[in-house]
Amino acid sequence: MELAAIEKGGYEHFMLKEIFEQPQTIFDCLRGRLDAEAGTITMSGIQQYADQIISANRIVMVACGTSWHAGLIAEYIFEELCRINVEVEYASEFRYRNPVINKGDVIIAISQSGETADTLVAIDNAKEKGAIILGVVNVVGSSIARTSHGGAYTMPDQKLVLPLPKHLLHSLQCLR
Amino acid sequence: MIALKVGYMKGTISEERYMHLLNELNEIPEKVAWTLKAKRCRKSNCRKI
User: What is the value of ipTM here, to two decimals?
Assistant: First the structure.
């Protein structure tokens, strides 16, 4: 980690610095995945479960806080582009009830740290019921990343905890 | 990116729309930078007033 990453870099507040760093970090998120000239999107963590996602009757997004808000926006995008029924659930609600999960349902767990306890338990329960679990997390090797069948990292170069605006944008970039 | 990829593979979006959205996605960093710059200019102008 570079020293500049943990300093304010001339900005009045850390939050201001994070906001103004967004163009670069979104670029980093897309780099190596999106090739506009060739017209390709390369996401190896998704590719191997592409057939299951395409044939899924339902996608359930499970998350908490800002990640949940990213899920609410992604719901519109998924339904518009993929024509698949999407539900967005708060992980703390999802884990304490007995949700209907059918084999072949796709669960997308969104978490910045990849360690959100409610989200982790929720995907464990769904996994037992035969759902395909995809994780959209930032931290490589985190609990959710390890529990999921596949997924995408939002910005694996970043080692610090991401504040709200950055995480929201990164999650959306991956999901969109 | 996931939705766009899945939508294209599933055939629910045309190639033309896929390419258009891909280019739009690619331009987001530039557009965010432009928005932040514009907002900063407005803020400094407001302070002057």
Answer: 0.81
Of B1, B10, B22, the CB nearest to A82: B10
Calculate the CA B7 to chain-centre distance: 18
The residue with tokens 């300093």 is A7
Using a CB-CB cut-off of 8 Å, the residues of chain B touching A173 are: 1, 25, 28
CB contacts of B1 in chain A (<8 Å) are 30, 33-34, 41, 43, 152, 173-176
Chain segment A2-19, per-residue pLDDT in tens: 666 667 777 888 888 888
Lowest mean pLDDT among A74-83, A96-105, B15-24: A96-105
Closest chain A residue by Cα to residue B11: A82
The whole-angstrom separation of Cα B41 and Cα B18 is: 34
Residue A162 tokens read as: 């991401």
Residue in chain A closest to B33 (alpha carbons) equals A23
pLDDT digit string, tens, across residues A79-130: 999 999 999 999 999 889 888 998 889 999 999 888 899 999 999 999 999 8
Q: Where are the domains of chain B?
A: 2-48
**Cα–Cα dist B30/A95, whole Å:** 40
Q: Does the domain made of A3-175 have the CATH classification 3.40.50.10490?
A: yes
* Domain residue ranges of chain A, discontinuous segments joined by +: 3-175
